[in-house]
């Protein structure tokens, strides 16, 4: 598929790299989620994540580890943005806030995996393809929408009420981030009344190329 | 009581919800603790779980009650935005945002009504409501209060929902309420994330008490 046909070419260019060459299941699902979002739009990320988690059957520990991997991505993205020059005034304040929130999500999810008796996944390396503030904003908006969709997709797969509550309190914050970043980028902050739902056949067709 | 002081009261009540969430504080404390000795059982649904079920059961049993509770809130939001749009207090881009939010709340009403019927329940009736519409600033503040409360209300019910399909729908609405709240907070110069990195839930009792001043019959 050519770059012009992608819903989010900026997502397709994001790299998730694990030096150990032994990708964790969470990294595989994250790569698939980014690819699904790149090709079909961020609305497909939720259904993709739900399907991938259902197929892998790893339970809450795996779900939280996937969320942790997603938060690693967002946290690294904003930490890097803080170092790169460019953001000023209101945008700088927003980037600082988002960086702080995502870092707190990383810490909370790491603790949650441990409390569930699991081993938190290691942080992969990421490469974020953007050259200027406009490129940053576009990728930020797409990441935040991706995060909202991913959490909403994973939510019904979560068994523990406590984990579901924690995920809910994080996804609401991701949604608030998404709205603020989209507004900064001149986009509709709440473009739809719901994440569009997709039928099983559509989802399967979309996820097949990404799930081994 | 003047209409504007009702809005202020509602806001204070909402703020009180946030301040009282000791369970969340425990969760956050656990998050900063790598020893793993504190368990996640202290997260917010543990708090909201026991008290809220009976409060939503006045609207029906189980998921039907939760959906009807949400429907009642969405009816109020829809009526509020309809009144605001008609008030003449807003123009141009501001009016467009409020119209858009109102349309989305109306879509939530339609979806929740359909969901209640699908579960074999009777949709809750639309409450008669009146809102103070004194100035653009006061209305924007009330809108922010309502949206932040709405988001907290959905979050407070997430762990009480039994059906995965109902939960998926509720989550899809919950994040949209969060988006609305962030936009209105921004307009008011307030933080987009007033609770910090983890949004706080509100139980049904608190939410219903907060909206009660606007229900007239």
Which helices and strands occur, and which strands form pairs?
The complex is a heterodimer of chains A (212) and B (217).
Chain A: H1 9-12, E1 15-17, H2 25-40, H3 45-56, H4 59-83, H5 89-115, E2 125-127, H6 133-154, H7 161-184, H8 200-207
Antiparallel strand pairs in A: 1-2
Helix pairs in contact in A: 2-3, 2-4, 3-6, 3-8, 4-5, 4-6, 5-7, 6-7
Chain B: H1 3-19, H2 22-31, H3 44-57, H4 62-87, H5 92-118, H6 136-157, H7 164-187, H8 204-211
Helix pairs in contact in B: 1-6, 1-8, 4-5, 4-6, 6-7
Structure description:
The complex is a heterodimer of chains A (212) and B (217). Chain A contains 8 helices and 2 strands; from the N terminus they run H-E-H-H-H-H-E-H-H-H. Chain A has helices at residues 9-12, 25-40, 45-56, 59-83, 89-115, 133-154, 161-184, 200-207, and strands at 15-17, 125-127. Chain A has a two-stranded antiparallel ribbon with strand order 1-2. The longest helix of chain A has 27 residues, at 89-115. Chain A is globular, with a radius of gyration of 16 Å. The model of chain A has no long low-confidence stretch (mean pLDDT 88). With 217 residues, chain B is an all-alpha fold. Chain B contains 8 helices and no strands. Chain B has helices spanning 3-19, 22-31, 44-57, 62-87, 92-118, 136-157, 164-187, 204-211. Classes of the chains: A mainly alpha (212), B mainly alpha (217). At the A-B interface, helix 5, helix 6 and helix 7 of A face helix 2, helix 3, helix 5 and helix 7 of B.
């Amino acid at each position: 598929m050519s770059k012009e046909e992608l819903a989010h070419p900026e997502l397709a260019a994001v790299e998730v790299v694990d030096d150990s060459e032994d990708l964790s299941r969470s990294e595989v699902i994250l790569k698939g989620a980014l690819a699904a979002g790149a090709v079909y739009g961020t609305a497909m990320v939720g259904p993709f994540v739900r399907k991938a988690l259902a197929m892998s059957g790893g339970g809450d520990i795996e779900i939280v580890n996937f969320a942790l991997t997603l938060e690693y991505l967002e946290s690294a993205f904003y930490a890097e943005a803080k170092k790169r020059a460019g953001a000023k005034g209101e945008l700088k304040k927003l980037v600082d806030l988002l960086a702080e929130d995502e870092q707190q999500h990383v810490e909370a999810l790491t603790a949650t995996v441990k409390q569930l008796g699991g081993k938190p996944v290691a942080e992969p390396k990421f490469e974020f393809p953007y050259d200027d503030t406009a490129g940053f904003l576009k990728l930020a908006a797409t990441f935040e929408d991706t995060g909202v969709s991913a959490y909403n997709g994973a939510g019904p797969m979560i068994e523990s009420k406590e984990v579901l509550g924690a995920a809910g309190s994080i996804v609401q914050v991701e949604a608030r981030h998404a709205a603020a970043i989209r507004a900064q980028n001149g986009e509709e902050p709440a473009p739809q009344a719901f994440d569009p739902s997709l039928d099983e056949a559509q989802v399967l067709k979309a996820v097949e190329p990404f799930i081994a | 009581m003047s209409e504007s002081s009702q809005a202020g009261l509602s806001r204070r009540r909402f703020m009180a919800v946030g301040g009282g969430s000791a369970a969340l504080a425990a969760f956050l404390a656990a998050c900063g603790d790598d020893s793993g000795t504190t368990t996640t059982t202290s997260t917010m649904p543990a708090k909201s779980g026991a008290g809220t079920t009976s409060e939503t059961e006045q609207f029906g049993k189980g998921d039907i009650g939760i959906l009807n509770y949400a429907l009642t809130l969405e009816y109020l939001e829809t009526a509020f935005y309809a009144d605001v749009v008609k008030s003449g207090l807003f123009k141009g881009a501001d009016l467009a945002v409020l119209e858009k939010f109102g349309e989305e709340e109306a879509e939530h009403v339609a979806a929740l009504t359909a969901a209640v019927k699908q579960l074999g329940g009777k949709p809750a009736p639309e409450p008669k409501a009146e809102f103070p519409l004194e100035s653009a600033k006061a209305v924007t503040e009330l809108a922010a209060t309502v949206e932040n409360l709405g988001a907290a209300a959905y979050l407070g019910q997430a762990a009480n929902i039994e059906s995965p399909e109902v939960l998926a729908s509720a989550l899809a609405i919950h994040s949209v309420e969060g988006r609305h709240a962030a936009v209105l907070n921004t307009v008011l110069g307030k933080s987009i994330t007033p609770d910090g990195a983890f949004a706080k839930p509100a139980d049904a009792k608190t939410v219903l008490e907060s909206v009660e001043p606007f229900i007239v019959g």
